[in-house]
Write a structure and sequence with these properties.
Helix 3 runs parallel beside helix 4 and helix 6 packs across helix 7. The strands form two sheets. Strands 3-2-4-1-5 form a five-stranded parallel beta sheet, sandwiched between helices. The radius of gyration is 24 Å and the shape is elongated. The protein is α/β, with parallel strands linked by helices and about 260 residues long. It contains nine helices and ten strands.
Length: about 260
């Protein structure tokens, strides 16, 4: 059996009894940085063979893990902080496990994006997690364009050396919106800075960030007549059928109730 085990994102006490139990019982533990993980494992007096499993050796070690499992070993996979696979190595392994018909499970734990969303104070009924933005500027903007019209908070992970650039890029695509930058979650200097994208951060960019940006506000078309609303989209290049579809959706009415407005007079 392979276990994906959630580990603390800051405070070492944020780990479940089950996670400690599993880490003590498995034969080996795969971790991003063996030195980093030793701090947690030593704290709970867990003595197990460790081996590195990170984004630079993921494909090679994936084969190694599969071989160990087939040999009858139980393996735990942990990341430096939080849940493995989520913006961390593991996706390749999950696919291989399914292809090989090998058993795996999850031992839940702390998750930075959920904690940050709560700390942000933004609407948490629905949200979209995007993770880290790509390195290339063109790819960053292309990705953001796909999510620019969502009317729910968007959550990003950002390193301290990227947070300023990330905010500027998001602003260039989304325009000015409310945002919250959360850092040092569960630690002594935990902080949630609320700001507008156009203003950027006021504090020094230190620590790993979770950036939460408010969704797009719904347009108010109540001041337009139905004819004006339809004409607005037709003037923008949409045909009557597509304009009708958008107007019906935005006004919360059926398309059939608007057909009479598309008949030529």
């Amino acid at each position: 059996m392979l276990y994906f085990v959630g580990t603390p994102i800051g405070n070492l006490k944020d780990i479940s009894f089950r996670a400690i139990e599993v880490l003590k019982e498995v034969d080996e533990i795969a971790c991003e940085d063996t030195r980093h993980s030793l701090t947690l494992l030593n704290h709970y007096e867990i003595k197990k063979p460790l081996f590195a499993y990170h984004k630079f050796n993921e494909n090679k070690e994936c084969v190694n893990i599969i071989e160990k499992l087939k040999a009858g070993k139980n393996i735990a996979v942990i990341s430096d902080a939080g849940m493995p696979v989520i913006s961390d190595p593991g996706n390749v392994l999950v696919k291989s496990l399914i292809e090989e018909g090998l058993e795996f499970t999850v031992v839940p734990g702390a998750c930075a994006l959920i904690s940050a969303l709560i700390l942000s104070g933004l609407d948490s009924a629905r949200f979209c997690f995007i993770g880290f933005l790509p390195e290339k500027q063109t790819e960053r903007k292309e990705l953001l364009e796909k999510y620019s019209s969502l009317d729910m908070p968007l959550i990003f992970y950002s390193a301290p050396h990227d947070i300023v650039k990330d905010i500027e890029t998001v602003y260039s695509v989304f325009g000015n919106r409310r945002a919250v930058a959360v850092k040092e979650i569960t630690k002594i200097y935990e902080n949630a800075e609320r700001f507008n994208l156009k203003d950027g951060l006021k504090s020094e960019p230190k620590g790993e960030f979770v950036l939460i940006v408010d969704g797009k506000e719904k347009e108010d078309y109540s001041n337009l007549s139905i004819e004006e609303h339809l004409q607005m989209y037709i003037n923008s290049g949409l045909d009557k059928k597509e304009a009708l579809k958008k107007v019906a959706k935005e006004r919360g009415v059926s398309k059939s109730s608007l057909y009479k407005y598309t008949i030529e007079k």
